[in-house]
């Protein structure tokens, strides 16, 4: 009986959420904002260190805009695991209040407790922020020109098993049940965003990734919605793959270069984008955007690396992921040329030239040194030609 009541409560909340999605507001227009407020959340572990370096890069690139009052940076404290555990909330109320005063966020990794940790069972801060701000689209690009890889992943960000992860129930000591939730309006908006991106960027293929042959109801709804929306874009090829075989095809050198835009439910998107990031140099080099109509959050895709902190290696943490997220942030708020400069500098420093190498240990560069390397590269008046030369070599 208790399990039935528990499920009933979850069901009621999700039905209300569906109606809320249907009434969603229009997209924010950053050209009408003065200032655009960028909130900076350090997070846990190596997060404050690498996010601080990324903030340094963005402040350098936007120094004129800051001086003119067009952009403002605000550091938001208190989103640490210690504080979240203290108040038993994924986001403390005062932190959430400050977050909502910003337009976009640059966020470091936060620790999510797992069973057996000393921390209480609180929801992921990432998941909570995404739900609270309705950041329904997680967008992760992966480019490795030398291998012909140019992918962009659109991962649904507010549904699936992650949305209800903390709300499973242990019915008996022998039976535990978690919940997976997919909605039609939630699927429609992420799928449409993927097709719109393909249309605007001259992409010819959008691929859905599910496990609809086994998870027939929820994944089936996502896939059905995908093909319904695909009919509105006759110039774009639409196809679908199952998550298990797709993980194999990303390492298939004959097949992987065919993929362009991929759209996925939450869990599969998390898994596949981590795999994809390895081609670009690992999760430490990949950033991601969490996009909603009113807010947006840009972050690393890796964790808080508490072991690095415990071993005294924080200064060797690679800030590339958050800096690349910063480039995505610049593009999102309309500073496309600055975003392009930063992306080119990151490519040169991290993929091509590699004058400094990050190893995560004293055998490599510190995050501060690598950040300085990026800043020096950005200032090169020959930056674009230098980047183009590396493209030819690739």
From TrEMBL:
Assigned keywords, A-Z: Oxidoreductase
GO terms of molecular function: isocitrate dehydrogenase (NAD+) activity
Domain Isopropylmalate dehydrogenase-like: start-end pairs: 37-374
InterPro entries (alphabetical): IsoPropMal-DH-like_dom
Single GO biological process annotation from the record: tricarboxylic acid cycle
SMART domains cross-referenced by the UniProt entry: Iso_dh
Pfam short name (any one): Iso_dh
Keyword Kinase: no
Sequence similarity: Belongs to the isocitrate and isopropylmalate dehydrogenases family.
Designated name of the protein: Isocitrate/isopropylmalate dehydrogenase family protein
Organism: candidate division WOR-3 bacterium
């Amino acid at each position: 009986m208790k399990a039935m009541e528990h499920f009933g409560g979850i069901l009621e909340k999700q039905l209300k959420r569906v109606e809320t999605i249907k009434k969603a507001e229009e997209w924010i227009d950053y050209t009408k904002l003065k200032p655009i407020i960028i909130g900076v959340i350090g997070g846990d572990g190596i997060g404050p260190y690498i996010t601080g370096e990324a903030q340094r890069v963005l402040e350098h690139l936007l120094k004129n805009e800051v001086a003119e009052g067009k952009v403002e940076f605000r550091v938001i404290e208190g989103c640490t695991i210690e504080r979240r555990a203290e108040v038993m909330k994924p986001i403390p109320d005062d932190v959430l209040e400050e977050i909502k005063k910003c337009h976009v966020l640059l966020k470091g990794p936060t620790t999510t407790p797992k069973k057996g940790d000393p921390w209480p069972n609180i929801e992921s801060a990432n998941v909570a922020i995404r739900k609270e701000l309705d950041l329904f689209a997680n967008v992760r690009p992966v480019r490795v020109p030398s291998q012909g890889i140019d992918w962009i992943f659109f991962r649904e960000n507010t549904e699936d098993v992650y949305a209800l992860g903390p709300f499973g129930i242990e019915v008996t000591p022998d039976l535990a049940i978690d919940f997976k939730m997919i909605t039609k309006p939630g699927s429609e908006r992420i799928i449409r965003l993927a097709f719109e991106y393909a249309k605007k960027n001259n992409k010819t293929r959008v691929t859905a990734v599910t496990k609809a042959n086994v998870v027939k109801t929820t994944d089936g709804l996502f896939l059905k919605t995908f093909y319904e929306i695909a009919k509105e874009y006759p110039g774009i090829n639409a196809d679908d793959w199952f998550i298990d075989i797709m993980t194999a095809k990303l390492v298939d050198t004959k097949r992987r270069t065919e993929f362009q835009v991929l759209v996925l439910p939450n869990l599969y998107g998390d898994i596949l984008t981590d795999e994809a990031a390895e081609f670009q140099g690992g999760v430490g080099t990949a950033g991601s955007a969490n996009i909603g109509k009113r807010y947006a959050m840009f972050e690393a895709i890796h964790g808080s690396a508490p072991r690095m902190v415990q071993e005294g290696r924080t200064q060797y943490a690679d800030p590339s992921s958050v800096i690349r997220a910063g480039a995505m942030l610049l593009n999102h708020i309309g500073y496309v040329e600055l975003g392009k400069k930063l992306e080119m500098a990151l490519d040169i420093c991290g993929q091509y030239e590699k004058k400094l190498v990050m190893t995560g240990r004293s055998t490599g560069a510190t995050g501060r040194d690598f950040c300085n390397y990026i800043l020096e590269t950005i200032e090169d008046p020959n930056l674009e030609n230098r980047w183009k030369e590396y493209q030819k070599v690739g």
